[in-house]
Write a structure and sequence with these properties.
The protein has 215 residues and is α/β, with parallel strands linked by helices. It has a single domain, classed as Rossmann fold (3-Layer(aba) Sandwich). It is 31% helix and 33% strand. The protein is built from six helices and twelve strands. Strands 1, 4, 5, 6, 7, 8, 9 and 10 form an eight-stranded mixed beta sheet that branches. Strands 2-3 form a two-stranded antiparallel sheet. β11 and β12 form a beta hairpin. α2 packs across α3. The protein is globular and about 65 Å long. The N and C termini lie far apart (36 Å).
Length: 215
């Protein structure tokens, strides 16, 4: 597990701005900070992927370098995941992409208990590929687990990386228990989940802050 907040990193500046109530009202800046964190995480993940020796012809000769053996598949959960996912796409600019629409479906009567509803999913073939599944908030971990298992209908990845900006200790434990084969990349691990299953201190609703409140 890799956690940016546990080491000196420019990522901590972007996370601080995402949390700051006086800054996060600027939706453009909020989305851009999510995108920047996606870029930083993409770079860190890229260092763990397999490479192969390659030759590049220049106007004066041949340069030898190492290039990715295979582009990953970038997956995210609509809608909050879109700017974070864009950061990954900026760096893995030849990658294929997967998208899922998953959300909390609350029971009638205002009960805080919920089930994860999923009404949309699309993906390329994942067989033998590297899957990077990114979502800004790892709260309970149930959305990521459901999306991951739904994606397996498109093939079994050779390896899977899960990236989140903020996580709860409960969500981390859940993912490590339910998806032990997945590698975790996190911006920070916060204190706990509250009674409504939101991360504390967190930053609020990432989807609303990025795109406006939903009805």
């Amino acid at each position: 597990m890799f956690v940016f907040a546990q080491q000196p990193s420019l990522a901590n500046q972007y996370i601080a701005e995402l949390r700051d109530v006086s800054i996060q009202q600027d939706r453009l800046r909020f989305r851009r900070n999510l995108e920047r964190l996606g870029e930083l995480m993409a770079y860190e993940i890229s260092r763990t992927l397999p490479y192969q020796n390659s030759a590049v012809q220049t106007s004066l000769g041949t340069a030898h370098t190492q290039l990715l053996r295979q582009q990953p598949v970038l997956g995210t959960i609509l809608r909050a995941g879109l700017p974070f996912h864009q950061g990954f796409a900026n760096y893995f600019d030849h990658a294929e992409n997967a998208f899922a629409g998953a959300y909390r479906g609350y029971k009638p009567g205002g009960d805080d208990e919920f089930e994860i509803e999923m009404d949309y999913i699309v993906s390329p073939d994942l067989s033998g590929k590297t899957l990077i599944l990114c979502d800004p908030m790892l709260a309970t971990g149930r959305s990521l687990e459901k999306v991951y298992h739904a994606l397996l209908r498109y093939g079994i990845p050779a390896q899977t990386h899960i990236a989140a900006v903020l996580a709860s200790p409960e969500g981390v434990r859940y993912v490590q228990t339910q998806l032990p084969q997945c590698h975790l990349w996190l911006g920070a691990i916060d204190d706990h989940l509250n009674e409504h299953f939101y991360i504390v201190p967190g930053l609020g609703d990432a989807g609303d802050l990025a795109y406006g409140q939903k009805v």
